[in-house]
């Protein structure tokens, strides 16, 4: 420590750090590197050798010696001596330690072998890469040499041409100048011996002349005497040498004096201020600046722009609608040129305007390009209906759709075939959902896929959907009921789908069953059974007693053999969504009938505007399967949202294709919805005129159903209820439970919420109760339609009906003070009541309509006067009554209307 006041004095100070003995162990840190860029820092201890005789360790002694290179060596503390007499016995390794070390050695060997193999593979790859690079370098070198050789030959040919030209143009002067130059050369050489070669006037001192260039031929002597050396300056670069001055006749030509140079031969001295930058960069060669290079490029471009450009002909892809900017970019044309062409056609556009495909095609073809028209629907090409190879097809199970009128026993017949009891679980005892099942034929052992459709009039779309995906239609007709409206509709669906029909006459066990009547009624609809000489198979069955069920299955199998149903099961799957719903625990669930190929877990699927990856496949028995072949109905889990019933399902190769298809379909769906809304509403003037003339009232509703098919049937039924005066306005319709957003929407429009086979969650029910929103639940479509019909009937304006009471003839008019004019009348027919509506008729013309204010019989006020009696009557706010007028008395009744 040094004191600033007396720098010469030094004081002894004790450090504040606590003194302690250092251990004998030396420590350090080492960073270990592992694979994948991992590292770890560990502490390494270095211990000295244990000595038995107690002598100090040699390492400690070496450390204690001062290092010769250090100016101020620091002696280390010697290690404390050990007890010479203490004997230490080293312990042996345990079995666990030995096995751990053995396994570590084995792992090290395996790792070493793996690293050696990787090193060899890397060396092989490096050798292949180096060989390829070497071959590429050699090829490039050969190309460069060939290019240099070509340039050399071109330069040589050019030089020869220039030499010949100079010889041809300088023939007159060459014979005289050659001897003079030859005489002047030795004279100049003798007059100034020792002069540098640059001042002799010969071309040997300048590089780039004829003698300095290799490969040029020596010029011939021109007119000189034999044995005299020719002039050297006869090459094509003669202008580069010093010029000679000719004397008059007889005078010897002497070389022109070279210009005096103020600098010595060598690099030219740089001028300017001496700065640090110039001093450091003195040896560097000055290069062109960036600005100079840019100016040169602009000059070259300017010259090149004057040259005519070659027209580029391109194939222009034109969609259904394209902007002018995008069209110009695809044609590599200027957008102003495209706009100019449109202006010539009489259309004013901006660069961002959208034009149709026909206009774009005209412009592109006028500019000389070829056009390829594409549409947005091209993304669906190759998605469906690919032709199967006939060699890879195999027989598949038939798909049979059971159709018929409501309560004719369709589901009971299927239950008898499947040995199940679906009817007992249906609300109201009627089928309101479409279902798909598989039945194994007891005789042949083959599987038959059945699709059960509802028979209610509201489920027309479901029956049509079932007829489209089927191979055979089984028409169930009750023997005691005959052909009904939905039976006729099912026949029409089957004919539209062009599928064969098998008539199953059910309920033959009933006493009033008449199968012959059913066959006769079917003739009216062009269905001729085999017993009547036709080609339609008919089977009399009883689902209750299970009569002739085996015969029905046999007929179905026979019809399937005639159809020869085959498909390729190894191709990507295609199918149809029969039904879709939103399950709270499983998410969107779609019942799919696979028609072609095999659907597997993990496939990327597209159905309508929804896509997804198959997470699980569930059969009709509730079992989870890994794949579903042709004609197999399964429930598919994994959609992003519930698809529409009737959508076609396809397996695509990747998610990008799936997103492309679904985005196009979603866009089309939005456009169709917007078009329907705009068409329904019309313009503002149309809406106002409609309200003035018709006064149509709307009944707002929010409908939530369990499946898409039921929702579709409900919407169709409610749409049919609408009239010119009142109609149901569906604010929102969806699949799934009633949520809080539905309640909020209903509150904004003061609408009612209808739930079909669904319920509202706890939060939605509380919000509806708090806001006074009515939620109605239904399980049967009959009750839902009837209640909505009654509610819509309440919006209808009531009907006013007149009931004639009687007529009275005015005999005399009396003028009474404080009352006014009173007509003395006699009731000719009917009765006259006080407070009733009256009309005053004069000469068969209605003069006034109003009410009776006074009805008197003699001096008393009475309620009514019978026919043939006289009375006094006065009108409200009307006194122009005359004798001979007729008073017509009537009553107006209000009658409530209904739909």
TrEMBL record:
Keywords in alphabetical order: Cytoplasm, GTP-binding, Initiation factor, Nucleotide-binding, Protein biosynthesis
Record-listed GTP binding positions: 404-411, 452-456, 506-509
Biased composition (Basic and acidic residues): 1-12, 43-54, 108-171
Localization per record: Cytoplasm
Record bears the keyword Cytoplasm: yes
Family membership: Belongs to the TRAFAC class translation factor GTPase superfamily. Classic translation factor GTPase family. IF-2 subfamily.
The protein's name in its UniProt record: Translation initiation factor IF-2
InterPro entries (alphabetical): EF-G-like_DII, EFTu-like_2, IF2_assoc_dom_bac, IF2_II, IF2_N, P-loop_NTPase, Small_GTP-bd, T_Tr_GTP-bd_dom
GO CC list: cytosol
Pfam annotation, one family: EF-G_D2
Ranges of biased composition (kind: Low complexity): 56-67, 178-235
Molecular function per GO: GTP binding; GTPase activity; translation initiation factor activity
Biased composition (Pro residues): 68-81
Boundaries of every Tr-type G domain copy: 395-564
Stretch list, region Disordered: 1-274
Main location as per UniProt: cytoplasm
Stated role: One of the essential components for the initiation of protein synthesis. Protects formylmethionyl-tRNA from spontaneous hydrolysis and promotes its binding to the 30S ribosomal subunits. Also involved in the hydrolysis of GTP during the formation of the 70S ribosomal complex.
Lineage of producing organism: Bacteria, Pseudomonadati, Pseudomonadota, Alphaproteobacteria, Hyphomicrobiales
């Amino acid at each position: 420590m040094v004191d600033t006041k007396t720098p010469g004095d030094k004081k002894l100070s004790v450090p504040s750090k606590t003194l302690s003995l250092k251990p004998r162990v030396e420590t350090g840190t080492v960073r270990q590197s592992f694979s994948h860029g991992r590292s770890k820092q560990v502490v390494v201890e270095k211990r000295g050798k244990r000595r038995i005789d107690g002598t100090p360790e040699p390492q400690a002694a070496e450390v204690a010696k001062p290092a010769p290179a250090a100016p101020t060596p620091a002696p280390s503390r010697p290690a404390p001596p050990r007890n010479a007499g203490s004997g230490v016995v080293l312990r042996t390794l345990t079995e666990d330690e030995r096995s751990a070390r053995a396994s570590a050695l084995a792992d090290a060997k395996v790792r070493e072998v793996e690293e050696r193999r990787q090193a060899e593979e890397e060396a092989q790859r490096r050798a292949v890469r180096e060989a390829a690079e070497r071959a590429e370098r050699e090829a490039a070198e050969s190309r460069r040499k060939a290019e240099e050789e070509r340039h050399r030959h071109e330069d040589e040919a050019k030089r020869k041409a220039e030499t010949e030209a100079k010889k041809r143009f300088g023939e007159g002067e060459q014979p005289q100048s050659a001897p003079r130059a030859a005489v002047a050369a030795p004279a100049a050489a003798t007059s100034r011996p020792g002069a540098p070669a640059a001042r002799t006037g010969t071309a040997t001192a300048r590089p780039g002349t004829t003698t300095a260039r290799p490969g040029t031929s020596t010029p011939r002597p021109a007119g000189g005497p034999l044995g005299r050396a020719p002039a050297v300056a006869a090459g094509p670069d003669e202008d580069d040498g010093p010029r000679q001055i000719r004397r008059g006749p007889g005078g010897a030509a002497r070389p022109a004096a070279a210009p005096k140079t103020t600098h010595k031969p060598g690099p030219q001295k740089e001028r300017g201020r001496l700065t640090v930058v110039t001093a450091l960069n003195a040896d560097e060669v000055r290069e062109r600046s960036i600005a100079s290079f840019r100016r040169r490029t602009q000059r070259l471009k300017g010259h090149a722009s004057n040259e005519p450009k070659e027209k580029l002909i391109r194939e222009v892809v034109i969609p259904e609608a394209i902007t002018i900017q995008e069209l110009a970019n695809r044609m590599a044309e200027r957008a102003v040129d495209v706009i100019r062409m449109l202006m010539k056609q009489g259309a004013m556009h901006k660069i961002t305007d959208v034009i149709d495909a026909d206009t774009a095609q005209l412009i592109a073809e006028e500019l000389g390009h070829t056009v390829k028209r594409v549409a947005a629907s091209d993304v669906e090409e190759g998605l469906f209906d690919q032709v199967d190879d006939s060699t890879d097809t195999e027989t598949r199970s038939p798909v049979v759709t059971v159709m018929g009128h409501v309560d004719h026993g369709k589901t009971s017949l299927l239950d008898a075939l499947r040995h199940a009891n679906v009817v007992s679980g249906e609300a109201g005892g009627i089928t309101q959902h479409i279902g798909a099942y598989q039945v194994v034929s007891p005789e042949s052992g083959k599987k038959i896929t059945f699709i059960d459709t509802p028979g209610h009039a509201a489920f027309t779309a479901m029956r049509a959907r079932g007829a489209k995906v089927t191979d055979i239609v089984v028409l169930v007709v009750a023997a005691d009921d005959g052909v009904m409206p939905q039976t006729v509709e099912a026949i029409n669906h089957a004919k539209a789908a062009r599928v064969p029909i098998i008539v199953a006459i059910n309920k033959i066990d009933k006493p009033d069953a008449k199968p012959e009547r059913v066959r006769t009624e079917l003739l009216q609809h062009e269905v001729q059974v085999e017993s009547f000489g036709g080609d339609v198979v008919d089977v009399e069955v009883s689902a209750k007693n299970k009569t002739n069920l085996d015969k029905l299955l046999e007929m179905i199998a026979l019809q399937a053999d005639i159809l020869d149903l085959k498909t390729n099961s190894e191709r990507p799957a295609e199918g149809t969504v029969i039904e879709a719903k939103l399950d709270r625990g499983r998410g969107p669930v779609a019942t799919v009938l696979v028609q072609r190929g095999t659907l597997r877990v993990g496939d990327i699927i597209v159905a309508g505007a929804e896509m997804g990856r198959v997470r699980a496949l569930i059969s009709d028995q509730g079992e989870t399967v890994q794949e579903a072949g042709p004609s197999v109905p399964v429930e598919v889990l994994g959609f992003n949202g519930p698809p529409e019933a009737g959508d076609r399902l396809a397996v695509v190769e990747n998610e990008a294709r799936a997103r492309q298809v679904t985005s196009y379909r979603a866009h089309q769906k939005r456009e169709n919805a917007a078009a329907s809304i705009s068409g329904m509403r019309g313009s503002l003037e149309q809406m106002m005129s409609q309200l003035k003339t018709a006064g149509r009232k709307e009944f707002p509703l929010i409908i939530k159903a369990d499946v898409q098919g039921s929702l579709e049937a409900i919407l169709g039924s409610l749409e049919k209820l609408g009239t010119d005066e009142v109609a149901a306005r569906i604010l929102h319709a969806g699949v799934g439970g009633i949520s809080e957003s539905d309640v909020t929407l209903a509150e904004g429009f003061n609408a009612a919420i209808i739930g079909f086979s669904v319920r509202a969650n706890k939060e939605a029910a509380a919000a509806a109760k708090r806001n006074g929103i009515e939620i109605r639940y239904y399980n049967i479509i009959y009750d839902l339609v009837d209640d909505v019909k009654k509610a819509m009937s309440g919006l209808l304006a009531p009907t006013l009906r007149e009931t004639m009471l009687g007529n009275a003839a005015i005999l005399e008019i009396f003028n009474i003070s404080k009352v006014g004019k009173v007509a003395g009348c006699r009731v000719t027919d009917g009765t006259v009541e006080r407070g009733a509506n009256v009309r005053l008729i004069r000469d068969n013309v209605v003069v006034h309509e109003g009410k009776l204010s006074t009805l008197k019989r003699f001096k008393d006020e009475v309620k009514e006067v019978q026919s043939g009696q006289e009375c006094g009557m006065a009108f409200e706010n009307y006194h122009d009554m005359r004798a001979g007028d007729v008073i017509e008395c009537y009553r107006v009744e209000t009658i409530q209307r209904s739909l």
